[in-house]
Amino acid sequence: MGRFAKLCTFAALFFSLRMAKKIQDPDFWYSFLLPYVNWHTRRAYSRFEVHGKKRIPKGGALIFGVNHSNTLMDALVLLSADNIRKVFIARGDIFKNPAVAKILNFMRILPIFRIRNGVAAVRQNDDSLNKAVDVIHDHVDLYLFPEGTHRTKHSLMRMGKGLFHIAVDANKQFGDKNPVYIIPTAIEYGDYFRFRSTAMINFGEPINVTEFFKNTTEENEAANINLLKDKLHEEISKLFTYIPDNEDYDAIWEIVKMKNEKRAGSLYKKMLRNRATVEKVLKYKEEKPEEAKKLFERVMEFSKHRLKEKVSVMSVAKKRPIFNSLWMFATLVLLLPYYLASAAVNLPVWLTTWIIRSRLKDPAFSNTVSFGVRFVLFPIVFIAGTIVMFCNLPWYWALGGTALLFFSYSMFVDYNELFRRWISDVRWSLKKHLRDEFKSLNLNNLF
């Protein structure tokens, strides 16, 4: 048995001994570890915002339907939104290993299987669906990703029926006493692949499933589920930068970034500006389809040239890139000693992260890997560094060094990002032909 298998078996035994009777019941070790996990999640983003919490009903059985764009980070981001108890449902194939299944159960994750997992596996869904209904009956929030799989796009895929079957069954069992709600929820990231980017959660207007079934004239349950699916799809699409997933998606998203990437304000206001730009572009496409087609082709050609020159879209979005490059250079010089020390101390963390990320087949897991490695290794680096400093330095120097060490890995990542943007700004300032090409697109006047 390999070391990883032994570790999983030991962890599974530990968690099974500590496991509550129900997945949603309070558990000491889960509650003990949760603040630590949430702190690491928040530190994985340079900015983190939660909006729309006042829309969530105070009573009732709550099922949250969320867009799925960034693998495990979606669940971690939702978990860290507040201290309210939550249970998640994930795809069943990750539960194949019994030891892993027990760990996931400890983490309050239920499996749901698809037909591709086999008929025998799908039969297990009845148990998960019953447990899910019991979760919301006990007034514990249930979170699902109805798209069924992740995709790094500002769009939505076709939704599965699992969430809606849970809502329907719950409404049949106790909807007359405890109304059932589906809460449309969206997560928007500044970047799907860069660690320490931004994350925003936005809760939408609840869909009262109990009232829906009281008022519907449709008698067929499958037809009602389809109506609920359409409603949830529509409501989630209002909560983030939603772009229809068609042949023009990439061009529209490129336009949105060039227009709004560098504008100041909250993440929520930035999302609203993005949505306004998307609306203008879609209107232009509808009114002038031939001109829009030509524009989109030119935008994608410019994007190809920009990427070839290694110029960030954030540089293109800046009004004064030369000025920005000057203050960034001064900041980089000022922080260079701290950066070099941070790089040296955190070598085990960033080197391990780089090795694992370089071998990923699906780049969508990049941030999950960055989070996981930091979660495991940085505390070891921090504790070891603190011990060394207090053993070899006066207490006041050791205390100051510990404070610097505490922020060192975040500083290391942020410095690398600032350096990347500075290089991009310099390139953008020197590439007159590229700036002229961008100016010829006339995006500011069009949108």
List keywords for this structure.
8 strands; 20 helices; alpha/beta; globular; 3 domains; Glycerol-3-phosphate (1)-acyltransferase; 447 residues; eight-stranded mixed beta sheet; 61% helix
Structural class of the helices, strands and pairings?
Answer: alpha/beta
**What share of residues is helical?**
55-70%
The whole-angstrom Rg is 24 Å
Estimate the mean pLDDT confidence.
91
Q: Point out poorly predicted stretches.
A: none
Question: What composes the largest sheet?
Answer: 8 strands, mixed
- The N- to C-terminal Cα distance equals 61 Å
| Total domain count | 3
Number of strands: 8
- CATH architecture title of the largest domain: 3-Layer(aba) Sandwich
Range of strand content = 5-15%
As for the CATH topology of the largest domain, it is Glycerol-3-phosphate (1)-acyltransferase
Principal-axes geometry comes out as globular
* Assembly context of the chains: single chain
Query: What is the N-to-C order of secondary-structure elements (H for helix, E for strand)?
Result: HHEEHEHEHHEHEEEHHHHHHHHHHHHH
- Provide the CATH superfamily of the largest domain: Glycerol-3-phosphate (1)-acyltransferase
How many distinct helices? 20
